[in-house]
Amino acid sequence: QVQLVESGGGLVQAGDSLRLSCAASGRSFGFMAWFRQAPGKEREFVSAISWGGTIYYADSVKGRFTIFRDNANNMVYLQMKSLKPEDTAIYYCAADPQSSPRSSRYKTWGQGTQVTVSS
After folding, report:
1. Residue 1, pLDDT score
2. N or C: less crowded end of the chain, CB within 10 Å?
């Protein structure tokens, strides 16, 4: 069974750091990504990483977030620093893109983990 499970979300203050983890099971994936969805807003791309380490970031997180993966253990991480209240959202792990890695057209999604940043 193909499955993605996120963890690491929580409530933090502005300026704090947080690391999200995504455990993949059932198969290995080429591209894996993080998306987020804030209340009342559409799901948006955050970052993506290929098996070989090609990385993409949304402009809004560039320089503050770092994506990396552990291929041996089928894990992908999102290290977030200098968090802002506008980073508050449910963060989703995704794998197996059906088009551009920045597009939300991924075949497999996790259940999401809440990140709340207070001011």
Report:
1. 85
2. N
